[in-house]
Specification:
This protein has six helices and five strands; from the N terminus they run αββααβαβαβα. It has 253 residues and is of the alpha+beta class. The protein has two domains: 58 residues; 156 residues, OmpA-like domain (60s Ribosomal Protein L30, Chain: A), CATH 3.30.1330. It has a five-stranded mixed β-sheet. The radius of gyration is 42 Å and the shape is elongated.
């Protein structure tokens, strides 16, 4: 009898254990079914999205390709322009260094070399180039202009603008009508020396007179007027390549 009771209890315990296992398995099955359903829904949504994307790719492939090509051209344009800018900066850097080495023996207050914007400016006090109220190049000026011309001839990709500047003291005599006339004649005198004596290509040269309208200092003092009486040799890297790039709007459209 005791054995029977023991067996019944054991069977009951076994049944309970089995029931727990079954319940656990059923719960696991429900969880798996829920996961499968969620996965199926996700896959269905993904397929729908892929289908939409496929339609977009088919209908807008040319437009997308065109946009990519346009971006590629813009990037190429930017790289080319950046390269040209670096080239210009390199030319200006070389010009400044070479000019300063060539003119190292000239006093700083009489000749100044600096980069302004995209150009190199060589500002020479008129006392080094001309006699007072004269457009005749002095002998000591030829040495300075020869050194400048040598540097310019070593850089073919540079245009040269010669600007004459005066103070605001009016001038009127047999040689000059006014300060405009004086500034222009001084500029052309320098151009002729650079062309005729030092073989600069005249197609690279421009002469201009600015009278007293672009002062560097106060014309109310003798020291200021002395600074304003100057000739500026302005060296500008040729911009043809920049203009060629800027005349290609399809690259940036």
């Amino acid at each position: 009898m005791n054995k029977i009771i023991t067996l019944v209890i054991a069977a009951a315990l076994l049944s309970s254990c089995e029931n727990q296992k079954v319940a656990l398995l059923e719960s696991q099955v429900e969880q798996l079914e829920s996961q499968i359903e969620h996965t199926q829904e996700s896959n269905s949504s993904l397929l729908d999205r892929l289908s939409d994307l496929s339609v977009i790719n088919q209908t807008e492939a040319k437009s997308i390709q065109s946009s990519l090509e346009s971006l590629g051209k813009q990037n190429e344009y930017i790289q080319n322009l950046t390269t040209k800018i670096h080239e210009k900066d390199s030319i200006n850097f070389a010009l400044v260094n070479n000019l300063k080495r060539s003119l190292v023996d000239i006093a700083d207050e009489d000749i100044q070399i600096e980069v302004r914007g995209s150009a190199v400016y060589v500002s020479i006090a008129d006392q080094l180039l001309f006699q007072s109220a004269s457009a005749q190049i002095s002998r000591k000026a030829t040495v300075i202009l020869q050194k400048v011309a040598t540097v310019i001839n070593d850089h073919n990709a540079v245009n040269v603008l010669i600007e004459g500047h005066t103070d605001n003291i009016p001038i009127s005599n047999k040689s000059f009508t006014d300060n405009w006339d004086l500034s222009v004649q001084r500029a052309t005198a320098v151009v002729r020396i650079l062309q005729n004596e030092y073989n600069l290509d005249p197609s690279r040269l421009t002469a201009a007179g600015r009278s007293f309208y672009m002062p560097r200092a106060d014309n109310e003092t003798p020291q200021g007027r002395s600074k304003n009486r100057r000739t500026e040799i302005i060296l500008t890297p040729k911009l043809d390549q920049f203009f060629e790039l800027l005349e290609a709007p399809e690259l940036v459209g």
